[in-house]
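Minutes, methods subgroup
Present: GH (chair), OT, SY

1. OT presented the first of two proteins processed in the latest run. Sequence and structure tokens recorded below as shown on screen.
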Amino acid sequence: MSQKHTTYLQLVKAVPKSLQLFLNVCLVLLALILAFLLMKELIEFVNILILGGTSDYKLFLANILIFFLYFEFITMIIKYFKEDYHFPLRYFIYIGITAMIRLIIVEHDHPINTLIYALIILILIVSYFIINITPLERPVRSSLLTKKDTHDAR
């Protein structure tokens, strides 16, 4: 019976580690693909600016925002590894704002859609503001307050 229990505990510990390793490998591959696409956008910028590729400023602005989307995704993956396998929510908000700005620049033919995109940007900015004013370490602070309250009660 003890042998089965030990095997079960080893399996319970091995499965999350295996899945975490798989996730990490996939994220590194995704980061490499995004880095390749980022370099491709840089080559496109050189083509537009130096070689005089296209004179459409909307296309150029859309390419700049796509560049920033790649950049933000790569930054988010880096932060994931630096912050002990945690995606900070603010990076998703950055990406959402950038994507909505790109949509406004590229697809601004319908005023109702542009207004909706602008409202989405406003909601994302308000969300970012709420995240910034909210304490990051809420459980630690509440436990400190609990200890302080019990200490004051003595």
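2. SY then presented the second protein from the same run.
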Amino acid sequence: MKSNSWLSAILLSACMIACSNDNNDPAPVPDPQAPTTGTWRVTLFSERGNDETSDFNGYVFTFDSNGSAIATKGGVNRNGTWSINGSSTEFNIDFGEKNDANKPLGELTDDWEIISVTSTEIKLKDDNDASAEFLTFNQN
């Protein structure tokens, strides 16, 4: 019986090591040029579990390759900036101060942590976990 339990322990250890390696797949690399193609809309903005996506209804966003961003609603343009840091871990957006007078665009001003960036979707979360903010843009 002792040899069977020893063999079982070895097999269990080998299985645990093999299974833990399955989770080491590299995260997809964000495409830093993806935002510069076409126009975008906010399809998710949530803060502390509150869905505030409707605050962005009617806005169309353009991210130019020179780092400028434009939010357009009802023919009115608001200028801002955007960038993806060199290590492709942060998506920085600046549409001005976060205050009541600058809502909703000021809510986007942040250093967002990149979840994914593709040619059709940009998924971000606030780099401060306590705020529990999530932001998703989809291409129009």
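Chair's summary of item 2: The CA atoms of residues 80 and 95 lie 5 Å apart.
Next meeting: continue with the remaining queue.
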